[in-house]
Amino acid sequence: MSRRVRFLDTRPLRSSRPFRDLWIGSSASQLGGQIATVAVLAQVWDLTGSPVGTGAIGLATGLPMVLFGLLGGTLADSVDRRAVVRATTTGQLLAAAGLCAQALSDNRNVLLLLALVAIGTACGALGAPARRTFPVRLLSSDQVAAGLALTNVSFQAAMLAGPALAGLIIARWGFPAAYAVQAVTVAVSMLAVIRLPAMEPEGVDAKGGRRRPERGGWGIILRRPTLWGSMATDLSATLLAMPIALFPLVNEVRFDGNPQILGLFLSAVAVGGITAGVLSGTVTRWRRGGLVQLTAAGVWGVALAGFGLAGPLWLALGCLAVAGAADTVSVVTRSALVQLETPDAYRGRVSSVEHVIGVAGPELGNFRGGLLASVTSASFSLVAGGLSAVLAIAAVAATNAPLRAYRTPSAGAEPTARGVADAATAAG
Questions:
Q1: SS3 212
Q2: 377 phi and psi angles, rounded to 5 deg
Q3: In angstroms, rounded to a whole number, what is the distance separating the alpha carbons of residues 24 and 213?
Q4: How far is 173 from 153, CA to CA, in rounded Å?
């Protein structure tokens, strides 16, 4: 295999100017989002000095993500998706400007701060399903996975660099500067969206002046084994084996609560993810996407069980890096499969379900892990969770032959040609 194939597949950036613009804008926005996340956390702590206050950030972000994410799915299947993302990005820009303004005015009201965070999150969640459908409309089917890998690499890079950059900005210029950077990066994202072509969903009916999406948009997930199997695989991995909530306890028990080591835990996951992204050219060219996702999700579970048993720091970090790499491969292949297997008329609603699973699964998984560790130990929770995830993923693989056999459509093929039959079934 050639050297070029082994590394990050950059064909989408060369072959599609709209996708290149979108990637640049999304990368900038992700970096600004990470900077703002740290700023909000620090400002809430500064205002309240309470873990209850910082915990409230989770409510201000989690609830809008779920509620508006599902609403955004229906919206994305009813109107021009570019218009949806334009409007919601405008909302995010106004929320970022509001955060900057409240910091400049030396706001001492934490409820105002959390309200602005909730508004920005709601706008982002409302546009997320529509935004998720862009790569499959801008790229040929054989480049969709590569495009998603590029997006994932930029996200992992933002996670790695954003918090450190936020610390520098806040230390030197304060909270207003951090929120101003977020506003500028959202504006860059807005410019990219403005340049996109119109993206009307296929199959939208107009009756009596109203636009209505195709019926059966939610049920298609259950009708297609590839879709429910891919989502069940992701939910099994995150719900049963999410480790983040256990990092402080593991650090306290094994490494005397060293804050630098706690940071290394998070960095190891990100480094593994970035490494897998940089080397994703091989994976994104493999057409057995279902089998790749199942395998990667299984490796995630095994690696986290290994982290639960690891004694030396180097082994613990190695297990986390492997888990991060496996997660990247699983996310990229799952996202490509979901987009390619869903008829365009239903992509908004299916994407909203994928979005909610991606948001709720890790949060519930962290809660599960912490609850189990509170009555047993961190090691038991990690090992039990990792092995349970492997068993659940094996069960999905054993009972879902279409997912095991799934192949990415070749270039020029219409991956959702059977959407007409699905629509007829739903209408019947």
A1: strand
A2: -160, 165
A3: 31
A4: 29
What length does the chain have? Answer: 428
CA separation for the pair 64, 91 (Å, rounded):
14
Exposed (0-12), middle (13-18) or buried (19+): which is 330, by Cβ within 10 Å? buried
Determine the 3-state secondary structure of 210 from DSSP.
strand
Q: How does DSSP classify residue 108? A: -
Is residue 148 a contact partner of residue 333, using CB atoms and an 8 Å limit?
no
Tens of pLDDT, residue by residue over 345-382, are 888 888 888 888 887 788 788 778 888 888 889 899 99
**Residues in a beta bridge with 211:** 206
pLDDT tens by residue, 394-425: 999 999 999 999 987 765 555 443 433 343 33
The residue written with tokens 């997660």 in the block is: 327
Residues near 283 by beta carbon (within 8 Å), at least 6 away in sequence = 145, 149, 276, 292, 329, 332, 333
Question: CA dist 168 to 35, 47, 161, 248, 258, Å?
Answer: 10, 20, 11, 24, 21
- Is residue 203 scored above 70 in pLDDT? no
CA dihedral in degrees (162, 324, 145, 75; nearest 10)? -60
- DSSP assigned state of 206: E
Beta-bridge mates of residue 206: 211
